[in-house]
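Exercise: predict the fold of this chain.
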Amino acid sequence: MDLTVVAYVIYLLISVALTVWVARTLSRNGKVFLADVLHGNEKLADAVNHLLVVGFYLVNLGFVTLYLRNSDGVADARGLFEALSVKLGVVLLVLGVLHLGNVYVLNKIRRRGLMEREQIPPVAPQGWTGPGHGPWAAPAPRA
């Protein structure tokens, strides 16, 4: 069997396994984060989480398959390891960049939601208190 084909098979097995592992890890650990971003709406958080995982699979597996071709043939074991290290390194970098991009966007959404929540008073105003009234005012003089 040609070593180039061996390199392709090993690359595909490792890349697909890494993609599945990262997607499952992000899905499992991202549910709490998404629930916070979406104001505790668990059903919507699960739906968004599932959509993100599907998109993650499509982008990563598409990249893995497009990056499969090796322009130079693999002649020996050293070439096999060098080709695999370059290809797997690029796949890992792409996985990391996509993960950081997702976290960045979701964190922006989360911060916007926190800012909106802070602008709404916890209790509706009951009226207006003029100066000299309230807990910070000086005590009234005794007669």
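Check your answer against the key: The CA atoms of residues 3 and 76 lie 7 Å apart.
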